[in-house]
Design goal:
This protein is an alpha+beta fold. The protein contains 18 helices and 22 strands. The strands form four sheets. It has an eight-stranded mixed sheet with strand order 5-4-3-6-2-1-7-8, with helices on one face. A six-stranded mixed sheet has the order 15-14-17-16-19-18, sandwiched between helices.
Amino acid sequence: MAKKKFKAESKRLLEMMINSIYTQREIFLRELISNASDAIDKIYYKALADDSLVFNKEDYYIKVTADKANRTLTITDTGIGMTAEELENNLGVIAKSGSLAFKEANEAKDGHNIIGQFGVGFYSAFMVADDVTVISKALGSSEAFKWESKGADGYTIEPAEKDSVGTEITLKIKANTEEDQYDEYLEEYRLKSIIKKYSDFIRFPIKMDITTSQPKADSENEFEEISEEQTVNSMVPIWRKNKNELTDEDYNNFYAEKRYGFDQPLKHIHISADGAVVYNAILFIPENTPFDYYTKEYEKGLELYSNGVLIMDKCSDLLPDYFSFVKGMVDSEDLSLNISRELLQHDRQLTLIAKNIKNKIKSQLQSLLKDEREKYNQFYSAFGRQLKFGVYNDYGMHKDTLQDLLMFYSSTEKKLVTLDEYVTRMPEDQKYIYYAAGESVERIEKLPQTELVADKGYEILYFTDDIDEFAIKMITSYKEKEFRSVSSGDLGIETDAADKPTDAEENENKELFEAMKGILSGKVKDVKASKRLKTHPVCLSTEGELTIEMEKILKSMPNGQEVQADKVLEININHEVFQSLKAASDNDKEKLSLYTNLLYNQALLIEGLQVGDPVQFTNDICKIMV
């Protein structure tokens, strides 16, 4: 029996594959089970074309057996088996797939498809084994053959004894090292968990001898360990069942079994697409925010299956970032996979699936918003911030997708409302969608800047999230109505003639405001009479795109951006404080400076901004008290 060497390119590929292609060693079991499933499928296909063959599904299975004493793991199947020539062709030449060739020659017409498309998967066994032995007997053959290899050096093929048709792969598991514990691949619970994770939906039984503890027949207090053969995979995935047969409880149980979250899903979406691309999907909108959701450690993505076999735990390409809270899975036979099946090629099918999923999620959220408002409020409390970030991100590219899903607290409704609900209620004479930004509803309600808008009976949206204003700046307008901050220089509201200062008053106050502007040089862009204040003496407004609230947020960020909104100090000329200003302007320039700085610092405090010099501010207060 002469040892045969792998071809040079195959040897290099094997060495690379063992060391780098697969990211997790446990993948080897998925690959070997998928190959075993393919082998059974091949008999099924042959039975379709050959009347002399009867395919009785109960006769076909995959068996996984661990022998701790001899450090071997064996995967046995009752599939089609391989001749000596097929062992040579399929296992002697790396990356040649017998399954792929068979699939191309026997395209399925009834939904059964071969899983394997690459011959590389078999060689993942060498990540955990020093020696791999394959004994196989082909359908219709009276002979069996053994293929054996210790890795990249080569392999041997020789006659062997095997009673039944099928293939038996035995792995001699490596010894433990300081870095790696290979013993785990001989542990019953570990093997079972790997099978459940990757191969739970293989459509043939995967059997193992499972040890259980049971009371002895003659004693209630003594127990003995019993080993029984059990089927460890569920075989029929929930997504391939008829939706009409499934209940909410079935979906909730699947959510819990897959450990998508410790909560209950608010809604599920079951997709069975059979168009330009064929796939099944079950998606969940969670009830609560994962503890790490707003951290860098959170990984978005859906589980990706190819023909019922788990390929990726987190396929991020299937979800846009703004819907990254969605959990679930996608199963498709149409995706192009790379050599290890762990990475996707960016192809048209993937793009189509992702686009369809995005639309389905939006449609489900719109349905929640319309028909189950309480549930939508619960969802929005957990993930509304993510939707708003989605509007802001990528320069507003996704605003049309997301703007109808946004909600903000309403000054008149005293609850969260949509932009559409706001615009629908707008009076005909209202030019803008008004908003006020602040740390909380309670703080915003006390802002002096809201007085004029509220006095006109106009609804104000309260922005209490730090992303709100940034998102709205990207939207700019909704249904042809522009957004306008209550702190904006121009509110588009005509004041009553009685409240307007006369030309004489404006000229009279011009010198005072210029003096105050000089006192506050570098701090404010202007000082002027206010058209928005009713009862408050002073407030800050802004000119330009950057608002005071945006300035606060940007300055609080880790990189500490030094930004400055163009602030305008507005004075209520109908307030008694103004008379004190005028008197100081006429008689006491030092007192005018004192009053000006006090009013400016008061305006800063109203906005939640820090005063420049707290000690000087307190000293100024003391001066007016003595």
